[in-house]
Amino acid sequence: MLPFVLALPLIAVAAGLDEKAPVAVAVESTFPTKDDRIRQQAFDGDVDSAYEAARPPREGDVVTLAFDGPVLVRSAEVRGGGLDGGTLEGSEDGATFARLAEFREGVAKAEPGKNLKALRVVPTKDAKDPVAIREFVVDSDPALRRFAYPVEFVVDEVDDASLKGWADKAAKECERAYGLINDALRSDGYRPARVVRMSLKDGVDVPAYAAGDRITGSTKWFRRHPDDIGAMVHESAHVVQRYRGRNNPGWLVEGVADYVRFVLYEPANIGPIDPEKARYDQSYRVTARFLGYIVEKYDPEFVLKLNRAMRERKYSDDLFKESTGKTMQELGDEWKASLKG
Ligand SMILES: [Zn+2]
Prior knowledge:
By secondary structure, the chain is α+β, with helices and mostly antiparallel strands. The chain has 3 domains: 25-141, Sandwich (Jelly Rolls); 152-241, Zincin-like (2-Layer Sandwich), CATH 3.30.2010; 250-340, no CATH class. It has 9 helices and 12 strands. Strands 1, 2, 3, 4, 5, 6, 7 and 8 form an 8-stranded antiparallel β-sheet that branches. Helix 2 (164-184) crosses helix 4 (229-241) and helix 5 packs across helix 6 (284-297). The longest helix has 21 residues, at 164-184. The termini are close together. It binds zinc ion. Residues 234, 238, 254, 257 line the site of zinc ion.
């Protein structure tokens, strides 16, 4: 118990200082996406990359930048193509929208000067060309968090139609978690997948698995465990890792994926551990705890270093000693003793 008692005030202080942390957003659209011109490219800080719709607009089509919470929007500018005559709108409650500006020559700009929860682009319904949005440029307080690792999860096959809504929700949640996953598993020169395909199939004997840029889940599993969206976050971590095999220890590859899932993404769900039976190389969430112990006690960058080495085919057990001065086995014993403490 003691470590938790000591840690709490620190977290409170950090939260206080962190008041102006950027607010997360989602880019939502009624259009299908054209190829790899994915939605999040409309808010990635790069005007050279665009979101492109796969068809011309119809009545009711919108592209929305939805904020997790209200921010004071000083100015908002949207640049793109196929937009002239359309409007830029803002919403104070995230549901009802009011006109802010009209698009002329591919630009709409406004200075709302008030708290908003969303911005949206409404193209004219008789436009001939598909909509392209280069960028939402928003000056706000707090700032909005742009997508450092733009991605789109595309649900392309669901064997059980009653699970389609669940799959869409899981895809959305994985898109949201992708920044966290990639921050945890970043390494110089590595560019993660921008389009990840997700399907739910009958006859899959594990909850889910990843192969390349595709994640396949079991209809049977997710019918029974609809709360297990974290399983898809674990598979998303594998898509970013991309180094299963290559002589990397399997328990460590899984441990890193579950470190991302259970230490960073959903720590409340890691569950109990049996200190008598726990082994550092037990894989999955047990190894995730072991890695968390090393990160906390010895080296905040330990998982980053492991990840980089495994990705670059340079993994060796010596990495443990380099970061901690102790062998893997010594660390395993020490960690196990700490669980009983
Ligand atoms: Zn796995």
